[in-house]
Amino acid sequence: MKHRIVVLGAGYAGATAAGRLARRLHPDDTEITVVNADADFVERVRMHQLAAGQGLKRHELSQVYAGTGVRVRLARVTAVDVDRRTVALVDGNGADELAYDTLVYALGSAAADHGVAGVAEHAYDIAGRPSALRLRDRLAQLAAGGTVLVVGGGLTGLEAVTEIAEARPDLDVALATRGGLGDWLNEKAQRHLRGVVERLGITVHEHTDIARVDATGAVTGDGRMIPAQVTVWTAGFAVHPIAAATTLTVAATGQIIVDSTMRSVSHPEVYVVGDAGLADGPGGKPLRMSCASGVPMAWQAADAIAARLTGQKKIPKAPLRYFNQCISLGRRDGIIQYVTADDRAKPSLITGKLAARYKEFVCKGAAWGVSHPVLYPVRRRRIVAPRTETVATMS
């Protein structure tokens, strides 16, 4: 019987892991199934563009994995039983169950409201395609002079607020950030960011906590009202609660704790990639939720699974570190902040149109890598033990 590998989620991390596994393991010995609720691989890093009215290229999973041997199962994951090694699914035909020998958990994350009242009822987010499309429709309804507030001054918030302001210069766009504007960037990058924000006419509320969101805007921690017809919530992400409901060892964040090979510390047949996993990067600092973390995590997990199943003595090591932070500021401007391995800003950077082109190249490269798994180097090795013995002997 073939060794059954099930990959849950086809975002950057899950899709990459599945494609890489297909090129590392012999198809006569393995059966790789990707479970995803959407028929497409979605470029999550472009959701701010989608929300601002731009069209995005489709990447149908059936086409992505054509010729690889990877099976695509369109379904929503409702539960995982790591003791029975099964996954509960729901699709158009109803409930079903899928068994696995090795599981790659890549269910990602969604917008987190952090318990702030009114966010779920009144705010929009861009954590996925459905929510980005809802925001797109709402923005299209705003007449000139309409007010938009983006809450959250991280990478997602900066990209969203500048994209919206550039696409709709007729709107009154504002940003509320808990800290200073781009205060994790170096000084030159911060100056450039402020210049772009001023050029686009964005009002910035720095050192501002949001205590409540309603239909007319947001109330700050000190009681001020920031009026907004549309509030966009980008203040962080949270993982799906499925993992916390299992016997997997998880952190307080709900992320599954993994070792240096992306394998669950409690269940050796489970590997975790992307936002759902809590992995240590350089200096023991946890990797942040990002495409820049998820893809190397996927490389590491796929190579570790292949090495263990095929009896290799040494597990390859992926580059689990950072090189830069790429920030688009609309379609014609940006910041490429070079960083240390543990994600601290260096003095060097790129700004302006060149940075915008650099960021676009990175986004296209990431999507190209996911959507062309047949171009991975082929090292298809045979599994060295029967399916029932393989999981038990993993080390």
TrEMBL record:
InterPro entries: FAD/NAD-bd_sf, FAD/NAD-binding_dom, NADH-Q_oxidoreductase. The keyword Flavoprotein applies. Keywords: FAD, Flavoprotein, Oxidoreductase. Its cofactor is FAD. Residues 4-302 form the FAD/NAD(P)-binding domain. Coiled coil: none annotated. Belongs to the NADH dehydrogenase family. This is FAD-dependent oxidoreductase.
